[in-house]
Amino acid sequence: MALLKILTYPNPILRQQATPVTTFDDELKALVADMAETMYDAPGVGLAANQVGVLKQIVVIDITGSDAKEKDLIVLINPRITNGEGEETDEEGCLSVVEYTAKVKRFTKIQVEAQDIDGKPLNFTAEDFYARVIQHEVDHLNGHLFIDWISSLKRALYKKKRKKQLEAELKKKTPVV
Ligand code: NI
Fold this sequence. Notes:
Blueprint: H1 26-41, E1 46-48, E2 58-61, E3 74-85, E4 88-94, E5 97-106, E6 109-115, E7 121-127, H2 128-141, H3 152-173
Antiparallel strand pairs: 1-2, 2-3, 3-6, 4-5, 6-7
Bound molecules: nickel (II) ion.
Nickel (II) ion is lined by residues 94-96, 136, 140.
């Protein structure tokens, strides 16, 4: 097991479409284990493969929270949202969108088709926070970030803030001669 590096905005890999998984082997299991470890370490409630630089349709989710006694890891391979109903606007953040949250409108109830880690088909209904997390992670697989769904003014402000953060990081790294 190993911790993976989480890519952050504006890394272009986050904007690419992930491709379906067709081989359910030990390599996939090892990647999923590393993704889960990375998500718990962050800590986050979900992580998509794009975020660790792998353009495959894989997400890991655990909505029990970092202080939960028992972990409840959900692995979705090739997930698709086949139906959505209801809507709710709530605060969202992302491990790839550093130090920023915003209100995002999502379905409150979704129908999901996916496969498990062995390739077995899954078909289930998700509601409320779980539904929100799945929608957020499926967005990642399609190259979307939650900031795509906020107003252009808010997005412009975030871009400016992120640019400043990156400039400050760069300054820190520059050796003084
Ligand atoms: Ni995210």
